[in-house]
Amino acid sequence: MKQNIETFIGCDADYEEAKVVLFGAPFDSTTSYRPGARFGSAAMRHESYGIETYSPYLDRDLIDPNDEGKYDGIAVFDSGDIELPMGSAEMALDAISRHTAEILDDGKIPLMLGGEHLVTLGAFREVAKRYPDVHIIHFDAHADLRNDYLGVQLSHACVIRRCHDIVGDGRIHQFGIRSGERAEWQFARAGHTDLHPFSLQDITGPTHGDTTGEHKGCAIEALADGTPVYFTIDLDVLDPSVFPGTGTPEAGGVTFEELRKAIHTVCSRCNIVAADINELAPTLDTSGVSTAVACKVLREFLLSMRQ
Fold it and tell me: Half-sphere exposure (CA, 13 Å, Cβ side) for 28?
């Protein structure tokens, strides 16, 4: 018999052999609209047992079928949720930073499950210390480039702006953005970030039947040379018809298949040194569909990562 320890399905490799370490950051104290993302990581673990470890898209499996330490994908250790104080964003970010630092120091890739999007800042602070030339690939409905939200600079509406404070211009590549105040769009379009709004097409290539000749190919091709990449996915990049269980849903989003293909492109071409998936609020979709979608996104993410 084994202890009843709930992990994301297939993510039960020994810590020593694992290449990726999964952990949850259950924090949503700066959510600007509807709270509940603090429950996202635990819900994903619990509901993951409703999906298979095998991906028919990639013909890969999260588990070792012969128990010989050989994986189709990548060996993953799930370290569970970390305890975070709800009353202090800075203290929560510090706790995330410490956990991320431990994983990085052991030569492994941290993959964080939010929580609201502010949790990215805690992990990214540590990543930028170790990889000063790191770039960010950011999938989201929202620009998250406000300098402050109602006077608060540590907010999920400001997280990418705070990351820009660390790395500066030319290092942040944003896709799927379709919401933000005018000042955010002006900031991005002034060249402070590499903005690809409304879709993920510039990641995956032209759509079927596109004969315009205007598409210039994959926007991240320059990052395929081993440049360290932090990959952050806010699940509200998905259309609310696919993913209603999120704090700030925005109409006009992408489909699951568009997101899956884009994730595969990024993970298979880029040197991912850390990543996160965030903003599932499971209590806002009592059907459970949003949690099931989030689980499948995570499975495809892990199986798309290059060895």
Answer: 25
